[in-house]
Design brief:
By secondary structure, the protein is mainly alpha-helical. It folds into three domains: about 90 residues; about 60 residues; about 80 residues, no CATH class. The chain has a two-stranded antiparallel sheet with strand order 1-2. The longest helix is centred in the middle third of the chain and has 38 residues. It is extended and about 90 Å long.
């Protein structure tokens, strides 16, 4: 007789609910550990816990969940897992390339206070940047400085050549005027209509989410320009009241997801404490 797949937990309603509780706790713990690693508190990311949770997610995917509320919890859990994995992977790539925003902010403050042009390995360690990522960070900073020095040298060379040309040109020669490029403003003109209000979301949170949306759109290499903020606000203004009402809450948070090469902005309910 053919046997069904063996699971490491009870596939009854109580067993599935218990497993989901465990997975949610692990995901929240792993989120805290990754943040501690990004801040330099933890020396390494929680790879063991990540593999364990990934195995549990793959395992529970094979279980037919008939209860609607448990199925909704599982779907919400997997969606949050995908979003966090995307964020963690992107941040790890930034750390390996030496472009992590928190390290760059520390270096900017240091360079401003010291008046220097580059960060040494010792200075990076003194700023609290972990040794494992300090080397890549210093290498990136040095590469940026080299590009700046090259640009300054090229500009000086071009200026010298232009000065020599003017010195040898006839006195009555006039240089043609070049039109300056016109920069298209992206913000609404002064006195225009106010932005569409978004229930459960502040303007600052929307601005931050749209900034992350543009970064994800650029990194994903999506064809065409990203939609303007007004278009996203109109879409959210229709969805947010339904989300708040369905989840009996007064706040939402926005996450960015990349699926099949497309960047999506998603709203998640924030339970009132």
């Amino acid at each position: 007789m053919k046997k069904g797949p063996a699971f490491s937990f009870d596939v009854s309603r109580e067993g599935i609910e218990s497993r989901l509780d465990e997975m949610e706790r692990k995901l929240e713990r792993m989120r805290g550990l990754y943040e501690s690693f990004f801040m330099g508190i933890e020396r390494s990311p929680p790879e063991v816990l990540r593999r364990e949770l990934n195995r549990q997610i793959l395992e529970i995917q094979q279980v037919p969940i008939s209860n609607a509320s448990l199925r909704f919890r599982y779907q919400a859990l997997t969606q949050r897992w995908v979003l966090l994995i995307t964020y963690w992977n992107r941040t790890m790539r930034e750390i390996e390339a030496g472009t992590f925003s928190r390290d760059l902010a520390k270096a900017k403050r240091h360079l401003t206070s010291k008046g220097t042009s580059a960060v040494t390995m010792e200075e990076a360690l003194a700023m609290g940047i972990p040794a494992k990522r300090a080397r890549a960070f210093v290498a990136h900073q040095q590469a940026v400085q080299d590009r700046r020095d090259g640009a300054v040298q090229a500009k000086a060379t071009a200026a010298g050549a232009a000065q020599a040309d003017r010195a040898t040109a006839p006195a009555n020669t006039t240089e043609p005027k070049t039109a300056l490029p016109v920069v298209q403003a992206t913000s609404a003109p002064s006195g225009g209509p106010p932005p569409i209000p978004l229930p459960g979301l502040s303007d600052g949170e929307m601005q931050d989410a749209y900034r992350r949306y543009l970064e994800a759109h650029q990194q994903a290499g999506t064809a065409g320009a990203a939609p303007p903020m007004d278009k996203l606000r109109r879409s959210l203004a229709k969805q947010l009241p339904q989300i708040l009402s369905a989840n009996n809450c007064s706040r939402v948070r926005l996450d960015i997801a990349v699926e099949d090469g497309k960047v999506r902005l998603r709203a998640w309910p924030v339970k009132d404490s």
